[in-house]
């Protein structure tokens, strides 16, 4: 039975769901929007996803799926821009969003905003439409700044995230930790926060034969460690490279190959530094930068690998962990996002505390590189079953279906 039909305006201003995954500003959030919209459309919701017009390849309006459309709104130059720059085009974005609504004579029931920049647009349009706004932050600026990794987030973001936490009608947090951070750092009301994790496409991400996967991808008998994600300092790739150096140079383990998936033209300066680090550690032949890889190919990489590493300093959720486990591959990494909820220590992976060193990471990786260590794919996959997208979309649908309608909108200074 379908939910009550509702029309949802999903806002994703800075990141198009069709963007190449693993680029500068295109990662798990884009996958989240595609998969969630697909499932909500099947449940009878009508979904319009609004993003910036960022290239000429994508038409103004696209039918993505049953009951799901993607609309590219003019907002600034017709090219990819940095996230913060997109903030300056929000007046044009919200004006064109309202013109779209008028042109097609639509009435939306809910605004579902993703990331703080979209939340600003959502707040402005909410004051016109007088309907609830649901927020999903995906990452929190104040948490990133506390880590002191990479470029600091602007004060504008921190201030705005706090205002949005106060003014929206519901917040979806991916983990209990994020809920606590929203309450403690931004003063969000506990009752308006619903903890619902992200999901994984269990039909796409499933185990494949390891030998056949390696032949397909050009690997042989190497001991393969896999990294998948955007190439940014917060992902801790430098520590992962040092761990590989420790395994090879200090522990004398031969045949190691670190395969790094992700990165685009904007990532080249950091990739250059990472390659320099690898050269300094005499790892030139042990590090394989594969660049962007289509989603459909990723299951073969996960299946080919002996172990996947997620050594990020911060993950709001941790989609790669789920994808790897769903493909039957153990995961070793820091205690971020959903790691402790899905990994069985020593059995399907290893979760390290935030302050543990790259040497400790190396030791845990070595545990799964041992030729005598066989991890049953079914054991890894079992922990991901509750995170299938139909289950996650059902929980989201319950939030969207039970929001109280607004009688008045309180306009706060931002």
Bin the strand percentage. 15-25%
Number of helices: 16
- Determine the N-to-C terminus distance: 41 Å
What is the C-alpha radius of gyration, as a whole number of Å? 22 Å
What does the average pLDDT come to?
Answer: 92
Q: How many domain units? A: 2
How would you classify the quaternary structure?
single chain
The helix-strand sequence is: EHEEEHHEHEHHEHEHEHEHEHEHEHEHHH
- CATH topology tier name of the largest domain: Rossmann fold
Instruction: Please give the order of strands in the largest beta sheet.
Output: 3-4-2-1-5-6-7-8
Fraction of residues in helix: 25-40%
User: How many strands appear in the DSSP assignment?
Assistant: 14
* SS-based class: alpha/beta
Sheet with the most strands?
A: 8 strands, mixed
Textual characterization of the structure:
The protein has 414 residues and is an alpha/beta fold. The chain has 2 domains: 7-199 and 389-401, Glycogen Phosphorylase B (Rossmann fold); 210-386, Rossmann fold (3-Layer(aba) Sandwich), CATH 3.40.50.2000. Helices cover 40% and strands 16% of the residues. The chain has helices at residues 28-42, 83-87, 90-103, 116-129, 141-147, 155-167, 176-186, 210-217, 237-250, 268-280, 298-304, 319-326, 339-342, 358-369, 377-382, 389-401; strands spanning 7-11, 46-52, 61-65, 68-73, 110-114, 133-136, 170-173, 193-195, 223-228, 256-261, 287-291, 307-310, 331-334, 349-352. It has an 8-stranded mixed β-sheet with strand order 3-4-2-1-5-6-7-8, sandwiched between helices. Strands 11-10-9-12-13-14 form a 6-stranded parallel β-sheet, with helices on both faces. Helix 1 packs across helix 16 (389-401) and helix 3 crosses helix 4 (116-129). The longest helix has 15 residues, at 28-42. The two termini are 41 Å apart.
């Amino acid at each position: 039975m379908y939910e009550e039909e509702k029309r949802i305006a999903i806002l994703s201003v800075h990141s198009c769901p069709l963007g190449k995954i693993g680029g500068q500003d295109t990662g798990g959030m884009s996958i989240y929007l595609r998969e969630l919209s697909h499932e909500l459309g099947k449940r009878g919701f009508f979904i319009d996803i609004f993003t910036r017009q960022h290239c000429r390849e994508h038409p103004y309006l696209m039918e993505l799926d049953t009951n799901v459309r993607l609309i590219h709104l003019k907002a600034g130059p017709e090219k990819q821009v940095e996230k913060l720059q997109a903030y300056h085009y929000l007046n044009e974005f919200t004006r064109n969003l309202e013109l779209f609504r008028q042109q097609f004579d639509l009435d939306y029931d809910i605004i579902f905003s993703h990331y703080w920049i979209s939340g600003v647009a959502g707040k402005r349009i909410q004051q016109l439409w007088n309907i609830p706004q649901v927020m999903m932050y995906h990452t929190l600026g104040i948490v990133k700044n506390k880590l002191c990794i990479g470029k600091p987030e602007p004060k504008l973001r921190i201030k705005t995230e706090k205002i949005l936490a106060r003014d929206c009608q519901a917040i979806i947090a991916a983990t209990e930790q994020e809920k606590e951070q929203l309450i403690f750092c931004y003063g969000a009301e506990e009752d308006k926060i619903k903890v619902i994790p992200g999901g994984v496409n269990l039909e796409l991400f499933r185990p494949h034969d390891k030998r056949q996967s390696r032949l397909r991808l050009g690997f042989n008998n190497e001991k393969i460690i896999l990294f998948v994600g955007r190439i940014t300092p917060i992902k801790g790739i430098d520590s992962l490279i040092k761990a590989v150096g420790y395994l090879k140079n200090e522990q004398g383990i031969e045949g190691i190959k670190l395969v790094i998936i992700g990165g685009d033209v904007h990532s080249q300066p950091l990739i250059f530094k990472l390659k320099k680090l690898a050269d300094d550690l005499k790892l030139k032949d042990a590090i394989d930068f594969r660049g962007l890889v289509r989603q459909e190919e990723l299951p073969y990489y996960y299946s080919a690998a002996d172990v996947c590493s997620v050594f990020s300093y911060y993950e709001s959720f941790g989609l790669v962990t789920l994808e790897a486990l769903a493909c039957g591959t153990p995961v070793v990494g820091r205690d971020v996002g959903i790691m402790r909820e899905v990994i069985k220590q020593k059995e399907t992976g290893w979760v390290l505390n935030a302050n543990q060193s790259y040497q400790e990471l190396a030791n845990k990786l070595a545990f799964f590189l041992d030729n005598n260590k066989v991890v049953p794919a079914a054991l890894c996959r079992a922990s991901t079953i509750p995170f299938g997208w139909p289950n996650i979309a059902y929980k989201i649908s319950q939030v969207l279906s039970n929001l109280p309608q607004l009688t008045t909108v309180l306009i706060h200074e931002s």
